[in-house]
Structure formats: structure tokens, C-alpha cells
Design brief:
Belongs to the NDK family. This is Thioredoxin domain-containing protein. This protein has about 160 residues and is of the alpha+beta class. The chain contains eight helices and four strands; from the N terminus they run βαβααβαααβαα. The longest helix is centred in the N-terminal third of the chain and has 17 residues, at about 20-35. It starts with 11 loop residues before the first strand and ends with a helix. The structure holds uridine-5'-diphosphate (UDP). Uridine-5'-diphosphate (UDP) binds near residues 101, 122, 123 and 128. The site of uridine-5'-diphosphate has 9 residues, from loops.
Length: about 160
């Protein structure tokens, strides 16, 4: 009797990932290698120092939070690596690789995660990832709008992979 296989398919998704200034200098290669080894395609990438205005816009959902000004300051304090990552279930998978916001929690609950390994504290926590598809497409448009139109990132894929 033929064995029946059940397969689960997740749609291809794109998420926005950032290596934050605290991690870029020391951990860039390790983080990029883990991204590639986990089956993500880096569809777009660029290194940039965000202006204050860009950082404020990027984190506008947190405008009312007590930590907002510190967060903006931190995000502008040095270069970030901005990336659009493509994979099945990319939003959730990249969030899982990052681990919880607070590295103290990450070390308890997800010791293999990037934040458990590389983050300093709840502010300087080494990586960012969109929390849903809506944010992902909005932030990708915002950060890569100058080189991408109509959400079509495919033509930039080879260029991005070459950079690695
Ligand atoms: N953050 C902070 N203090 C907090 C919570 C968050 O400084 O109490 C910073 C931290 O850098 C975090 C970012 O604000 O990554 C955005 O917060 P969010 O709650 O969206 O966490 P994330 O989605 O990055 O895990």
C-alpha cells in the first residue's frame, strides 16, 4: 500500500530585516551566513546610516513609547544593513531566528537566536524584523523605494547575491 505523504506549503513571502548598528561591525559575516544557510534569498541589500528623519519614520509605530527617542538615536548612531529577505513563511521564520526583543529573555527561551548571541540589551538588540506582511511591504518600499518599483525585487536578486 502506497504511503501517503502530507506536505505543508507556505507561500513565498518577503520580510524586511535589519542588522542594527550595534551588531554590524562585529557580527555582519556570521549573521549573513546564517541568513543564507537558513534558505533565505537576499533580494535586496544596502548598507546605510539612517538619518534621524528616516529612523523616526521607520519606527513611527512606536512614536508614543517612552523609549522612542533613544531608539531613534541608536538607529542613527552608525551604519545598518538593510535587507529584503524572501522565503516561504519569511516573516515568521526571520522573527524566530531573531528571538525575543529582550536578550535576557532570548537567552532563557531561545539560546540559539541572534539576539541571545549578539544583543547587548533590550534597546541595542542587534537585529530587526517586520512583525507582519503589511509592515514588511511598507518598510521595504520605504527603504528600497529608490531602486524598486511595483514591489518587484527579482531583478535585484543577482546583484544582491553578488555582494555577498
Ligand atoms: N525597544 C526598547 N525598549 C523596549 C522595547 C523595545 O528600547 O522596552 C526597542 C528595541 O530596539 C526593539 C525596538 O524598540 O527592537 C522595537 O520594539 P518592538 O516592541 O517592536 O520589538 P521587536 O519587534 O524589535 O522585537
Amino acid at each position: 500500500e502506497a504511503e501517503r505523504e502530507i506536505e505543508f506549503f507556505f507561500p513565498q513571502e518577503q520580510t524586511l530585516a535589519v542588522i542594527k548598528p550595534d551588531a554590524l561591525e562585529e557580527h555582519r559575516e556570521e549573521i549573513l551566513e546564517q541568513i543564507r544557510n537558513s534558505g533565505f534569498t537576499i533580494s535586496c541589500m544596502k548598507e546605510a546610516v539612517l538619518s534621524r528623519e528616516m529612523a523616526e519614520e521607520f519606527y513611527k509605530e512606536h512614536r508614543e513609547k517612552a523609549f522612542f527617542s533613544q531608539l531613534v538615536e541608536f538607529m542613527c548612531c552608525g551604519p545598518c544593513m538593510l535587507m529584503a529577505l524572501t522565503k516561504e513563511n519569511a516573516v515568521e521564520e526571520w522573527r524566530a531566528m531573531m528571538g525575543p526583543t529582550d536578550p535576557a529573555v532570548a537567552r532563557e527561551t531561545a539560546p540559539e537566536s541572534l539576539r541571545a548571541r549578539f544583543a547587548t540589551d533590550i534597546l541595542q538588540n542587534s537585529v530587526h524584523g517586520s512583525s507582519n506582511l503589511q509592515h514588511a511591504s511598507e518598510k521595504i518600499d520605504f527603504l528600497f523605494g529608490d531602486i524598486v518599483s511595483d514591489g518587484d525585487l527579482s531583478s535585484h536578486r543577482d546583484a544582491a547575491d553578488t555582494l555577498l
